[in-house]
Amino acid sequence: MTPRDEPPSKVLTTGQRLQAAGIAAVVSPLVGALCKTLTWRVEGIEHYDEVLRSGHQPIMGFWHGRILPAFYYFRDRGIVVITSQNFDGEWIARVIERYGFGTARGSTSRGGARALVQLRRDLMNGRPAGFTLDGPRGPARIAQPGAVWLAGATGHPLLPFHLEAARHWSMSSWDRTQIPRPYTTVAVVMGEPMYVERTDPELIEEMRVRLQGSLVRLEKRALALLAS
User: What is the full per-residue pLDDT of the chain (228 aa) written as tens digits?
Assistant: First the structure.
């Protein structure tokens, strides 16, 4: 996977942008009110600080279905994430920007190469990157190669993590999005950093599989942490 020129996406109308702003104005405080009630059990977060002390920036990777607790827990760290170039992506971008994230517009189907170029630039300028590894449309729990390619192209490490809520609602979407219930406990488990030495296709695929396997193990550890 390498960046290349892609056709521009459809530009949103002024009305759509105003509507997206209205949705974000309602959703943002609701998310904040919910997440302020949560209790966090955290393991492995020292890996994040270790990466920063080493002079690198983390390329953080997790499953799409854990977006809500992930963006709240890692708020106000200047992390740059990819958001889709459509109406849903517009209001989602406005919500997460209120919580201290940067956005690179694109998706696996359109604009993804440009978004990766922007993330590469942001990493070199000292900002972490974040990826929903199976997003934005799946298949669920199958890591896509974009984050791995970016790690190989920049020398910055992949940093996998998983979140699991003890009590939650599960949506009927493709990723079974998990919404923590108020006053529940959320486990956050972070794995060790993974460095990618090159961007040749064989190594990218090998590291993609390793990254996917790491997420599986982190999920098991998060469930065990909640059960202990």
Answer: 344 444 445 678 999 999 999 999 999 999 999 999 999 999 999 999 999 999 999 999 999 999 999 999 999 999 999 888 788 889 989 999 999 999 987 765 555 688 889 999 999 999 999 999 997 888 999 999 999 999 999 999 999 999 999 999 999 999 999 999 999 999 999 999 999 999 999 999 999 999 999 999 999 999 999 999
* Residue 64 DSSP label: G
**Which residues lie closer than 8 Å to 22 by C-beta, 6 or more apart?**
none
HEC profile for 139-189? Answer: CCCCCCCHHHHHHHHHCCCEEEEEEEECCEEECCCCCCCEEECCCCEEEEE
Domains of the chain: 14-227 (3.40.1130.10)
Degrees, nearest 5: CA angle 195-136-19: 130
Q: What span, in angstroms and rounded, lies between the C-alpha atoms of 188 and 44?
A: 8
